[in-house]
Amino acid sequence: MIKGLIAALQFLTRIPVNISVDFNKKNLSKATFFFPYVGMLIGLIAGIVGYYMRLLGGDEIGAVFAVLALVVVTGGLHIDGLSDTSDGFFSGRSKERVLEIMKDSRTGTFGVVAVVMDLLLKFVIISKLRTSMFIPSLMLASGNARLTVVMLMAYMKNARPGGMGSMFSDSKPQKYFYAALIIYLIVIIFGFGLKFLIPLGIAFITSGLITLKAYKTIGGLTGDVYGANIEICEIVSLFTFMVASIWI
Description:
Layout: H1 2-12, H2 25-57, H3 59-74, H4 77-89, H5 95-103, H6 109-128, H7 134-155, H8 164-170, H9 174-191, H10 197-218, H11 223-244
Helix pairs in contact: 1-2, 2-3, 2-7, 2-8, 2-9, 3-6, 4-5, 4-6, 4-11, 6-11, 7-8, 7-9, 7-10, 7-11, 10-11
């Protein structure tokens, strides 16, 4: 399982882990187990940076640095997927053409708008979080988003064979999804409280809606859609924490 953890850290983050690991099916399958926990680490780093910058410069400064930390730690990997997905899905073209657009390295208008809205929404929502909820919200929003994508990898059809997305889905990570889900639920319930399950539930619903859109548009999912799913589910989770923070 150590190789799976290393693979998850190397794939999902830019944290320097200078240990060589083959990205074969066995290691990728094991890596999916660690996705939500690596997500929590990403959120923890962003939360700590944002929290102390908030103490120094106020809510807006804290939010700026939290968003910046999310981008730096992940290398903008999922934002790129959101951009490509938006360019393709909103192009109004055929399935084959949409897949071509998503593979194109150039960024179109919809991609730019999606990235701007993604960063702007995160900034606004994070700036509104209560101080006591700041770090937990970022930790669990990042963990929630990556747990939902493991579900997609485990059970949903891939629309583009041969890509990075299909490498994960072809690794058959179903048992690791269930193991990750059970332990993650235990962590939330006993580490945070039952009410913290609400954002996770809404993230799963959001992921289901994204899947329906993807199936309708391209007949399945791709690595770019996985990235878009993570970004959108992070925003939805953060928004739920912001709204519910009054009584959580």
